[in-house]
Amino acid sequence: MGRFLGGFVLPLLLLTVQLAIAMFFLYNSLGAAMITSVVGIMCVLVSVVLGTRRNNRFQSNVMKCQDSRMKATNEMLNYMRVIKFQAWEEHFNKRIPAFRSRSLAG
């Protein structure tokens, strides 16, 4: 338990101390403009976090569609003999492009 806390608490404590010292020096050199710049940095940080979450959701949806397409392609390749004997080629020829168009649409 000690190693776990030491691995996370110490860097957090050091980060807090470093930020406090940096803010002190910035305020001494820039004055009130430091507050404006910190607010601007926070706004950019929030927009980056929101953009990253949106991108991750989009990427997850694309990967799900690609997985279903790959599963259908794999199924077709594994059961090629049965598909040929049962004349199911048309069914799979329609099914796989449908998965592809769904994955490209996002």
TrEMBL record:
UniProt entry tagged with the keyword Transit peptide: no
GO MF entry, a single one: ATP binding
Biological source species: Prunus armeniaca (Apricot)
Membrane-crossing residue ranges in chain numbering: 30-50
Protein name: ABC transmembrane type-1 domain-containing protein
SUPFAM superfamilies xrefs: ABC transporter transmembrane region
GO cellular component: membrane
ABC transmembrane type-1 domain mapped to chain residues: 1-96
Keyword Transmembrane helix recorded: yes
Tree of life domain: Eukaryota
Keywords: ATP-binding, Membrane, Nucleotide-binding, Transmembrane, Transmembrane helix, Transport
Entries under Pfam families matching the protein: ABC_membrane
